[in-house]
Write a structure and sequence with these properties.
The chain is of the alpha/beta class. The chain has a domain at 101-350: Aspartate Aminotransferase, domain 2. It has helices at residues 3-23, 37-40, 53-64, 86-98, 109-126, 146-161, 166-169, 186-194, 214-227, 249-259, 296-299, 314-321, 331-335, 354-389, 412-424, 452-463; strands at 139-143, 175-180, 201-204, 230-237, 262-266, 291-294, 307-311, 393-398, 403-408, 431-435, 438-444. The chain has a seven-stranded mixed beta sheet, with helices on both faces. Strands 8-9-11-10 form a four-stranded antiparallel beta sheet, covered by helices on one side. α5 (109-126) packs parallel to α14 and α9 (214-227) packs parallel to α10. The longest helix is centred in the last third of the chain and has 36 residues, at 354-389. The protein is globular and about 60 Å long. The termini are far apart.
Length: 464
């Protein structure tokens, strides 16, 4: 493809994306495709000769689009939002166009320094503890997902408690990690990958609001110490996946300080809410955290993948993950005056992710992001009121923000049938969870284009 051909077809693709954004509400939210249906329409072997771009775009429309679940639909209320926005798409395009491999400062200084600067902006925007600023001992890095951040945090905690012996001599199988049963599955996965083992993940009890019980955490730690194993890390959650519960960070942090444990806080979706001063109660006690992460690719209108991961002591992370073969040595790295983000993550290579987040912050402004977050919270509270006022339904959990858990009064089968009816209609998409042994529906409100009319329509479909 010549530059002129790229220019011509690129304009067509941008037009296609713009048309999609404009018309996304017209598609069934949940794909109605059956297993194998997409592959059946694709040729068994790759083309031997070039095909026209017309043919490629035609197959996108006719074969792929029926198999798309439309996460950007304003009627998408499932899981958590996976937002994009015009500025984030353009930033991603520029990142792809530049083709930067930002593993080292020297491989593109702008890639590293913009990321450091934007991460410091995020500290200010969310009013995070100053210990996460790059101007001190800490700093931030953009990971692909919160799952990677959790793994990095557990690895750093593992190395710190072993005085950095494990990376050289192998895993000490007496280390223990603590999380509640409401924590994300990435904690269990990180325990498996890190060599700590899923059998050494202790599940802490939760209270009637599904929040981690600090007293039970303390008891488990004491039991483990008495049995000869070594407590290593606690993973707390701000906005659990099931119900949006917020663990009591202040009390959990107190336990971690007393016991000398690494505290990682996962605020994957809900962390964005802290951009609004009135919602910063979710982070009360965060100053005790050794690491923290949240996903702008969920509720901050920045397309996947973009997770902001902060550490209070970057040297602990770097000592855990740094490897310096001869072919990566250079004067800038050896001077100690630069950040090499390859030492802050699992892979060596990294994309220029900061561009899309920078584009979003500059294009929307902090106040513009706040406006949308506040509106989503208002809609969440409005929906919760509708549930409470309808005797046919009951509110199961609502942390006061944009995730509402509810169910129809009756059996689990009744609620499964309701969810199936809603999703098969193609007009909305919701997901479910299990809470206190009950099948519960989740209403997650956070898409950039979602307005009150969409939420009202969803409620009408639920209640008819």
């Amino acid at each position: 493809m010549t530059p002129e051909e790229f220019r011509r077809e690129g304009h067509r693709v941008v037009d296609w994306i713009a048309n999609y954004m404009e018309n996304v509400e017209r598609y069934p939210v949940l794909s109605q495709s059956q297993p194998g249906q997409i592959r059946e329409q694709l040729p068994p072997s790759p083309p031997a000769r070039p095909e026209s771009f017309d043919s490629i775009l035609s197959d996108v429309d006719e074969i792929l689009m029926p198999g798309i679940t439309h996460w950007q639909s304003p009627n998408f209320f499932a899981f958590f939002p996976a937002n994009h926005s015009g500025p984030s798409i353009l930033g991603e395009m520029m990142s792809a166009g530049l083709g930067v491999q930002g593993m080292l400062w020297m491989t593109s200084p702008a890639c590293t320094e913009l990321e450091t600067h934007v991460m410091d902006w995020i500290v200010e925007m969310l009013d995070l503890p100053d210990r996460f600023l790059s101007s001190g001992d800490g700093g931030g890095v953009i990971q692909d997902t919160a799952s990677s951040s959790t793994l990095c945090a557990i690895l750093a905690a593992r190395e710190r408690v072993s005085e950095y012996r494990i990376r050289e001599h192998g895993v000490d199988r007496t280390l223990v990690v603590y999380a509640s049963g409401e924590s994300h599955s990435s904690v269990e996965k990180a325990c498996a990958i890190s060599g700590i083992g899923t059998g050494n993940l202790r599940i802490v009890n939760v209270d009637d609001q599904q929040r981690m019980d600090p007293q039970h955490l303390s008891e488990l730690i004491q039991q483990d110490r008495e049995s000869g194993v070594t407590p290593c890390c606690v993973v707390a959650t701000v906005g659990t996946t099931s119900t949006g519960a917020v663990d009591p960070l202040e009390k959990i942090g107190s336990v971690c300080r007393q016991e000398g444990l690494w505290l990682h806080v996962d605020a994957a979706m809900m962390g964005t809410a802290a951009i609004c001063p009135e919602f910063r109660f979710i982070h009360q006690g965060l100053e005790s955290a050794d690491s923290y992460c949240f996903n702008p690719h969920k509720w901050m209108f920045t397309n996947f993948d973009c997770d902001c991961f902060f550490v209070a002591d970057r040297n602990a992370l770097i000592r855990t993950l740094s490897i310096l073969p001869e072919y990566l040595k250079n004067q800038a790295t050896q001077s100690g005056a630069v950040i090499d983000y390859r030492d802050w993550q699992i892979p060596l290579g990294r994309r220029f992710r900061a561009l899309k987040l920078w584009f979003v912050i500059r294009s929307m402004g902090v106040e513009g992001i706040r406006e949308r977050v506040r509106e989503h919270v208002r809609l969440g509270r409005l929906f919760a009121e509708w549930v409470k006022q309808d005797s046919r339904f009951e509110l199961i959990a609502h942390a006061g923000l944009n995730l509402i858990c509810f169910r129809k009064r009756g059996s689990d089968a009744d609620n499964r049938n309701l969810l199936d009816r809603l999703n098969q209609s193609g007009q909305v998409y919701l997901t479910h969870t299990q809470t206190n042994g009950q099948f519960v529906l989740r209403m997650s409100i956070g898409q950039l284009g979602t307005e009150e009319a969409h939420v009202r329509r969803a409620w009408e479909l639920i209640t008819t």
